[in-house]
Amino acid sequence: MTDSTLLVADDHPLFRAALIQVLHERFPQFRTLEAASAQTLGAALKEHPEIELVLLDLAMPGARGFSSLLHVRGEYPEIPVVVISSNEHPRVIRRAQQFGAAGFIPKSSSADDMAAAIQNVLDGDLSFPHTDAETSQADADLAARLAQLTPQQFRVLMCLADGLLNKQIAHELGLAENTVKVHVTAILKKLECYSRTQAAVLVKSLEPESGV
Description:
By secondary structure, the protein is an alpha/beta fold. The chain has helices spanning 13-26, 38-47, 67-75, 90-98, 111-122, 137-146, 151-161, 166-173, 177-191, 196-204, and strands at residues 5-9, 31-35, 51-56, 81-85, 103-106. It is built from ten helices and five strands. The chain has a five-stranded parallel β-sheet, with helices on both faces. The longest helix has 15 residues, at 177-191.
């Protein structure tokens, strides 16, 4: 039987190593896996169905703000995600919650606090620092529209946001160019966008107001 696994997705090797050390000490019953980019995060989730929790940094190569969180929640809704970030702004914490995270851990947290938050989420609870930031109807609407996208459409959208042409997207994702055209049409309709540029601006709104 495959061991239960925790996935640490963070592009900073030193922090990743420190967090994994905490996991080994506090949660020895779990295996740990690492990912350092949005691409390796997706590959790990696809290859390891035994993953029970993702610890996710927002600022990784290939990610745009909350895009990785939304992608994981859309493709693997049964796997809880805890955002771990150096950006502790109340608005960032609130947006993580609205976009489907099960918890938020500031990177400045002590090992004890990190372990407690992780245990809460593993127990089926939510774990967020107190924040006075209000929920945003715009974020709720955005999350609802993005939730309509299939995983493949979400990947195409990220390529659109990078300014890639259909031919380039087809090469990047291993798709036929006509298939990409069909996806783009569906994406614009679901997101209620009139152009590729408008869709790219929408993706940009996923980025926190300040750096993470």
